[in-house]
Design brief:
The chain has 148 residues and is mainly α. 59% of the residues lie in helices and 3% in strands. The chain has a domain of 92 residues.
């Protein structure tokens, strides 16, 4: 077991990875981070807001939204990145599936139908013309005095 020559030590040394490949990988990692973080944060905030505003039981709104956000935060702290991304996407998919099962409220039905429940029948103004609805509580436009 003699000493190694300089030439033997150079051939046995591990060759470093090409610098260009490392830079390209770093660029892709930074790009992935720059896209995924705002996307996942936005999905998480939307899901928490959906839980807070759309849960039908008022006293469950804040606890459900808080448990959702704190649970995902704990997943990002204690799990590997890939697992945390999958859990975040899966939790969002569950909240989105639940949200699509919600039935619209009476308020939403009035908005979509143009307020049909609150329409007032106005008499015809004569000569085959239908009076246009004006502000509530005011007489029809034909009997009002002209604007100054």
């Amino acid at each position: 077991m003699g000493a190694m020559t300089v030439q033997e030590s150079q051939t046995n040394a591990v060759s470093p990875k090409p610098l260009r490949r490392n830079r390209l990988r770093a660029v892709f990692c930074a790009l992935n981070f720059a896209i995924m973080v705002p996307l996942l944060l936005g999905l998480t905030l939307w899901a928490a807001a959906a839980l807070y505003f759309d849960v039908r039981v008022p006293w469950l709104r804040l606890p459900l939204a808080s448990v959702y956000v704190l649970g995902l935060l704990a997943a990002w702290v204690f799990l590997k990145r890939r697992s945390a991304v999958g859990l975040t996407a899966g939790a969002f998919a569950l909240v989105l599936a639940w949200w699509f099962t919600l039935q619209p409220s009476i308020w939403a039905e009035n908005i979509t139908t143009g307020g049909a429940a609150f329409r007032v029948a106005l008499p015809a103004s004569g000569k085959g013309q239908v009076a246009r609805p004006g502000p509530v509580g005011l007489p029809p436009r034909s009997t009002r005095s002209p604007a100054p």
